[in-house]
User: What shape does this take?
Amino acid sequence: MGTLLKKWYQYRNSRKFARIGKRCSLKGQFLEIDGHVELGDYCKVRNNVVMRTNGGGKIILDTYAGISYGCFFESRTIIKIGRFTGIAEFTVIRDTNHAVIGTVDHWRLTPYISQPIVIGDSCMIGSGCYICPGVAIGDGAVIAQHSVVTKDIGPLEVWAGNPARKVAHRMKGVPDSMKARYQELLDRFGMRESRHGFQEEADKIAEAALDGINRAAEERDRLLALFEQQPVDATPDD
Assistant: This one.
């Protein structure tokens, strides 16, 4: 892709957001932004990404968040993605589902069930995941590819499967063989430097995650209380 064309896509795409921070990368040809979407500084959004909000919903990406190819986000309340968090290709994040339990009415006619989703700082969401309404994912968590996340995930936990379940903790109970393997890789290749001078901030996030407090869940609960106090448009779209 030519330099001029990249600049044109960057300019055109930047005008689609409700708020955009400095030095964001938005060079994809096909980027659908429909509704209220905010980007913090240094965010990167790849090609063929769709972000939609309805009924007053919002999608908010914090500093240095990254969204890979073919992802789909939809919100009627709020979806928040934390600092330094990466969402791999073809992941779906929706804070809304049709109400189908306890009724035989057609799903197109039933009200929506909408709950905020909060993904914390420094998380890694693998390719092809589905993040369900009301989920909170703690700082530093890792979600394996093609996982369906239906419940809260704690800081530094590793989850996988459909439905996703906890398979490991990044620091607790790690076998000596895995520790030795990581040390070998570190000795051979070293640690990559954080771009744009954010290493100190990333280190603070990692240190805070070790206390085990799920700050994403605390933020989700705060948002949920706010939305419960005000009506959310639950009428299905035509």
